[in-house]
Amino acid sequence: MTRAVTATPTRQPPVPFAPLGLVHRVEGGLIAATAAVFFVLAGFDWWWLPALFLVFDLSFLGYAVSNRVGAFSYNLVHNFAAPAMLVSVYGILIVNGIPAAPLIFIAGCWFFHVGADRALGYGPRPSR
Predict the structure, then answer these.
(1) Quick one: CA dihedral 101, 31, 51, 71, positive or negative?
(2) DSSP string, the chain
(3) I need a labelling partner for 7 at 20 to 30 A (CA). Which of 28, 61, 79, 112 fits?
(4) Which pTM was predicted?
């Protein structure tokens, strides 16, 4: 008697995850709170922060390609360097008399998102 050979579906390994320690979580929470305060002081409505919170998680779509691409796209978006760069460009433009409110709006939402993610224990993804 012969058995039929069935192909087992290929499964992608689980998304790599490295939880953050307490110090990084507290730091993330403080950055998120500070970003929220400055966001409101800059004249923006607070409700934009939760309304746009998940926009930055679109970087997870890279995981549809592979873990390596997903980790790269996630880490590219989930860091403090990019929103800090936006704040720097905003400062340069303001000093030169060029209004640039959208830059500070995006930076505020971005800082809040990354800080809140870190406070919840989500950090950079290893690219295995």
Answers:
(1) positive
(2) --PPP-PPPP-PPPPP--PPPHHHHHHHHHHHHHHHHHHHHTT--TTHHHHTGGGGGGGGGGGGT-HHHHHHHHHHHSSSHHHHHHHHHHHHHHHTT---HHHHHHHHHHHHHHHHHHHTT--PPP--
(3) 61
(4) 0.82
